[in-house]
Amino acid sequence: AQPLAPAPKAAPLRELPWAQLNFLHTTDIHGWWGGHVQEASFSADWGDYISFAKHLRDRADADGSDLLLIDTGDRIEGNAIYDSSKPRGKFTYEIAKKQNIDLICSGNHELYKAESADGEFFHTVPDFKGNYLASNLDIINPNNGRRQPLAPRYKKFKTKNQGIRILAFGFIFDFTGNDNNTFVIPVEQTVKESWFKDALRDKDIDLILVYGHVDVRSAEYALLYKTIRSAQWDTPIQFFGGHSHIRDYKIFDSTSVALESGRYMETIGFMSIDGLRTADSDKRPAQQQKSKVTFSRRYIDNNLFSMHHHTKKNETTFPTEHGLNVTFAIGEARDSLGLGERYGCAPHDLWVSRRPYPHDESIFTWLDTQVLPQSIKPSERNKKAIIITNTGGIRFDVFKGPFTKDTKFLVSPFTSGLRYIKDVPYKSASRLIKLLNNEGPILDMMKDGNTYLQPPEHVAAQYRPDMYIASQSQELHSYTAQDQTPLLGGSEDELFPGYTTHDDAGKDGDDTIHQVIPFYQVPNCVQANIGFNTGDEDKPEVVDVMYNEFIQKWILLGLGYLGESYTSEDTHSYADGKSFTNIMTEWVKEHWDVASEECT
Ligand SMILES: O=c1ccn([C@@H]2O[C@H](COP(=O)(O)O)[C@@H](O)[C@H]2O)c(=O)[nH]1
Description:
CATH architecture of the largest domain: 4-Layer Sandwich
Mean pLDDT: 93
Bound molecules: the ligand O=c1ccn([C@@H]2O[C@H](COP(=O)(O)O)[C@@H](O)[C@H]2O)c(=O)[nH]1
Strand order of the largest sheet: 6-7-9-10-12-11
Low-confidence stretches: 470-490
Shape: globular
CATH superfamily of the largest domain: Metallo-dependent phosphatases
Radius of gyration: 25 Å
Number of domains: 2
Strand content: 15-25%
CATH topology of the largest domain: Purple Acid Phosphatase, chain A, domain 2
Number of strands: 21
Largest sheet: 6 strands, mixed
């Protein structure tokens, strides 16, 4: 763990259901290689994960089982290690490749910008040669300008100890927001391609493994399941998903399941399968063959208490030399970026989802009542404006105490600035937010294009309403991330807050037994008024419509629906393209005294 990270707290744990074939799964790491330096539950780093995997590989080698490591993309954007380095990603590729990942693929964040897709081409694909698959993703080769698959479409291999014959595919969901140097081939088209149909004709397969940056409950995985099942009626199919930032497990049928393992290095997903046929099945005595294939899952809280327990190691025996070197390298990278630099001191916690919106402790209320109105000046003096920003641009909570360079990028990693359209009739401008937030044509188009404006876990919750219901009834807990105090062996009240996942297999998936954390709905977008109040008697005739440039497409479409026809030609850059991230940080510097009591 990183030197500043809090020590993990002891808590009641469920065991790993170790079996014939075992998997460790990470997804949506978003640059959190250093783990969470403010949260004890997730305080292990990539170096610890390397040690953890090594011990479990040794266990597999010792008992003749197998272990495979999988990562399903979105390794970049969302943490200062990636976003504040110059060039962005300077440390990321070096850190990632230190882990021995058996199967890896791209997420959508690797594709938003041409240079990060090229980063996959020049770094991640060769670093994980033979293990990186791109079943539905092409790139323009930067060396010759020609379109080609980013990596092989699929592979067939045998596991080391059991000789299980696996056919693997690596997908990305039907993403449409990529830059023009990559091509995401819709899954519907991919399943009709001859290479895919040919691959599925192979009958000498013990397991089909579909991993991808794809929500496990998506239409894309439903279609893949249906297509594969019709070609291979009884071969077990294991899916690994990503993108929606939640812990989830879906059961397709008795021999096909899907695991999704959260976000931000909070979760190491563990999956195991027993009773698989192997290449050597015929040579083995009949009694060794189990008739039924069984699947088990566990979501491991990413901290050393869990890791020590699951490997039966302790503080002295757990860290490997390789793991320690990587921990040290991450620390050096963090130091060289000066991530501890303090910009201000947060007077209290501000939450993305743990408080309703609006609420004094909602990060979005902070934005629309303080940061935006106090920072943004409309295009000309004495002008009035509305400013709209999407909630998905805010990626993490602010904890009471120091607001550092680290915090800045955890909360707002993206580079987009603000743009504006001058003098929009107020009667239309004032109706825009409803169109962006409520049922209607814009929301239908977002759904069709697989592009959303909310934080990903909220998009996921729309299909899993129990995520809200389960927590909405809980009263608000007044705890902070730093003061989680476990009391073992007792009732729900004595546990400390954390993940309490409810998936298709029940409520026993999390390795650590926790108290429920509240999870409240947030809208797609929030709005601040500048120079007037919504309740004012005299409404302005016209206002500047200002917005985060990431949502420009939707602003123009929305205004079009409201009868105001504008194109990108009518839009202007605000403050020479200053990023929203910098606007927020300047506000913090000005309003949250760095020397205040909370930080001493
Ligand atoms: O520049 C950006 C890029 C993304 N967003 C928001 O993030 C989600 C997608 O996040 P994933 O981690 O890929 O699931 C997207 O829906 C936007 O809400 C952004 O605001 N700005």
